[in-house]
């Protein structure tokens, strides 16, 4: 399966023809023109997405990725404000003026500690320390493509209003959007649109898990572990004691709560008592009040561990995000347009790639999904479940009426944050799903411009869902500045 060609150091994706399965909804001439305009540039957008895939820059370090998207938007007539909310890689790109203001979110950060070639078999890239296992290279590029398509439609029709593309860094644990919300960057926005790479297509109304994340740092006294151990106080003992207490605590917290950690620093040599150790924690639940309570108990465990090991402890909240607030009016609209666009059909060569990926799932953890399911769109439903993920889009959704969708950029059955997701995201399979999202977002934005009553209806539903006009947003991460070095 020939995927891409590398002239010099820049990777160019060789795109196969995109075949879309259209739904039963009637496609208007205007929609056909918007879709055709995006299809005409799919090779160009595929090149941009693959370049970001190649760079795989982690949270708050996405300088090249952010600049590439900014440059693309500037060429298309957008005014770009860079470095917003005290974040060098965050930006806001604007076209038009006045109301309504429709915003589209774009992400572009990669995940550390995992990488993969665009191959259906496990094939890490030597020397590479990160990969787009959540597909944010497609997210950022597809959203930019949608914003440009809306701009072209506004130019052609003379439609009044504003289209904005928000470049949002560090979604993976860095809570980039939270700082942008806190800075008031969404204060005049009427509706926000977003999407996410996935193994299926859908726009159902579901929530997500609220999350608080932080690093606990223990400081002790170094000593020779054999000659004079009594003179040492192990910082690693502090970390391990904390972890032991938190693990016992799991029995006594709500069963749908998730707590996970990784020891990021544990010492350098067994014969040296480590005087510094660090552990990175996440706590999640769809109810943010539960998350806040569990986090307080995690902090108490850390304090107890420091007391018992005679070490010193301090901690830093790295990120904190709200659960998503789904709005049915907007979800129905997004679903309608996704149904117009339809899902992704594979070429015979891509089917072989998908089957090979499917074999890698194994009998125990594999999915019963078939490659052909990428061509379907899931029925719309308002669901109360939160899935297993968290996103800083949650904070945006409590600040502005927000709607999202997912597109099949991965082989059906693929889990997020996996090497299989990176592999498909580096091929035409990922690009095809990205274009499904770009078209669906563009058509949804156009509908909102044409029917302000939809915006008003969504706003009324959103105010009620938040708990009334007296609701006041407060970030879970407090007043801290952006954690720009959290991936260093």
From TrEMBL:
The keyword NADP does not apply. GO terms for biological process: folic acid catabolic process. InterPro entries: Amidohydrolase, Aminobenzoyl-glu_utiliz_pB, Bact_exopeptidase_dim_dom, Peptidase_M20, Peptidase_M20/M20A_hydrolases. The keyword Hydrolase applies. Keywords: Hydrolase. SUPFAM superfamilies: Bacterial exopeptidase dimerisation domain, Zn-dependent exopeptidases. NCBIfam families: amidohydrolases. This is Amidohydrolase.
